[in-house]
Every structure is written in C-alpha cells, then in structure tokens.
Design a protein that fits this description.
2 domains, 9 strands, disordered N terminus, globular, alpha/beta, Spore Coat Polysaccharide Biosynthesis Protein SpsA, Chain A, nine-stranded mixed β-sheet, 306 residues
Length: 306
C-alpha cells in the first residue's frame, strides 16, 4: 500500500533521492520527514520504505499526501528496505536517512554544492550531532577528514550526514543484506576501494542514540559484524574495536553512554582477542598495543605522580 509523489520544490540542480527505511518508528518519523521536506534545496525525491509497521506509521505517511512516496510492506530488514528504495530512485545523488535521524537546515544543498565542486569524489559527508531519544544534543559526532588508511581503523563518517553519487551506489551493489548493524561502514569500505570521499565543513544531520536502538542494544552482534567486514576488506581487526569488545565482555560497557574504563583485565583480554582475531598479523597488532597502551600508561603515571 502506498502513494507516489514527486520532487520537493522546483527543477533546478540535480535530483537528490532520499530513502528512509522504517519499522514501527512512528514516534520519530514525523520529525524525520519534516527535516527532509523543509530543506531549502528544491529538487528532492523522498521515499519512505516501511516494513509493515503496526504503530501509527502508516497514518503519518498518509497525512503527507503526494508530498512523499511511500511503501508499507514486509521486507528483509534495513539493508533490504534501502536497496528496494534505490530501485525507485531517479536522482543523480542518493542517500538514506533512518527514521530516527534528522537533517539540519541546508544539509542537502551543502552536499550538492560539494559534489559540483568536486566531481572526482564518490561520497560527500559532513559533521553531525549525537542526540538523545528526546532529540536533545548529547555531543558532537567524531567526524574526521577523509583518509583511506584511517577509515580501515575507525568509522569516522556519520551515515545520516553522508550523500553518494547514484552511479557509485549502483557500482558497488548498495548495502549488504546480510548486515544489520554495520551496513554503512561496510559500504564506506567498499566505496573507498574505488573512489575518494570529501568532508564538508557544515553540520548536516543528527544521529539519535538511545539504549534500545540497534547499535547500542545489540553489541555482541555489532562486534561480530565489525570483525567480519574489517578483516574481509582490510585484512585486520583494529585495536579500538577489540578494546571496546573486551569492555563489553567484562563489564557490559555500551561504549557510548558508559565510557570505557582502563583496567588490567581489559588490557589482557584485548591482547588475547587481538592475537586470536589477527593470527596472520600479530606483529602489527602488538605494535598497535604498545603505542596505545604505552601512551595510556604514561598518562596514568603522570597523573599519579603530579
């Protein structure tokens, strides 16, 4: 069931397709929709792919008439929903905005301008805020300028603040349907093998963090997916992910609201995990440990002796 609408506004500039995957996210969905429809860029195709929600989602979608396109039917999860949304895309630029995230004013315009200024890049992305369940700002998202090697060590691209050339999305095959928690990071790693990316110096979006969202609520599965994609794409599982996993195993630290606390058991477990997950690159992992743990030790000793 659904309705079909056209672009938001007039006909100037390249069409941007925004797909929002949703399932029982009615409490957030209206804010997300309004953040897209209120953009000052005049040429947007907006598609909501709902997975057959049983809450107020469908009523909310109906209330927008032909201002948005939408479908409500069962799907195979977030990746499947976004990939299906891409099949409806008519834009030269493609992105997806989750039903609990929000664009900030000017986000789409800044992205289009960056693509026009840098025709060589496959992805542009900007800064973002982490927000709480009620929408209040928690802190800045740790976004960094693009660096191929660093991307293999840390996902510093905020997905809601990112935009992709449609041809690039199609070339890499979209999202991996088998991934449910690290699907965006896997996408960045695959794109980085073929294209460069560009950070724009504007805050483009917010990313909502709360304990029952997928990232924080399914830490064990999240780590297993991280291990799978980093080893497949870069052949190495970095220290920071292993250290966070050790904190989860020992103390159930969520890695966001509950900041990691240094401890000898955590260091030892991280060391064991690192050797287990990186059997072909033990020297690289040990060197990374010496650098990071050595710095932590020096800072701790300085604090104790000051």
């Amino acid at each position: 069931m659904g309705t079909v609408g056209g672009a938001v506004g007039g006909n100037a500039g390249p069409l941007v397709t925004v797909v929002t995957p949703s399932y029982n996210m009615g409490r957030f969905l209206k804010e997300t929709i309004e953040s897209v429809l209120s953009q000052d860029y005049p040429h947007i195709q907006f598609v909501v792919m709902d997975g057959g929600s049983t809450d107020e989602t469908v009523e909310i979608l109906k209330s927008y008439g032909d201002r948005i396109e939408w479908v409500s039917e069962k799907d195979g999860g977030q990746s499947d929903a976004v990939n299906k949304g891409f099949q409806r895309a008519r834009g030269e630029i493609f992105t997806f905005l989750n039903a609990d995230d929000v664009y900030l004013p000017g986000a789409v315009r800044h992205a289009v301008e960056a693509f026009q200024a840098h025709p060589e890049v496959g992805v542009v992305y900007g800064d973002a805020w982490y927000t709480a369940e009620d929408g209040s700002i928690i802190k800045r998202y740790p976004v960094d300028p693009y660096d191929y090697d660093r991307l293999g060590m840390l996902c510093f691209i905020c997905q809601p603040a990112s935009f992709i050339r449609t041809t690039v999305w199609g070339e890499v095959g979209g999202l991996n349907r088998d991934l449910h928690l690290t699907l965006d990071y896997d996408l960045w790693l695959r794109i980085s093998e073929r294209y460069t990316m560009k950070k724009v110096d504007h805050v483009l979006a917010t990313s909502r963090m709360y304990m029952d969202n997928k990232t924080l609520g399914r830490r064990e599965e999240w780590f297993r997916e991280i291990a799978q994609i980093t080893k497949r794409r870069r052949g190495y599982l970095p220290l920071n992910y292993l250290y966070g996993y050790a904190g989860y195993l020992l103390y159930k630290e969520d890695g966001f609201f509950e900041l990691s606390k240094p401890s000898i058991p955590k260091y030892l477990l991280t060391l064991g995990l690192g050797i287990w997950y990186n059997p072909l690159k033990p020297h690289r992992f040990l060197a990374e440990c010496l650098g990071s743990f050595g710095l932590a030790y020096r800072m701790l000793m300085q604090k104790w002796t000051s």
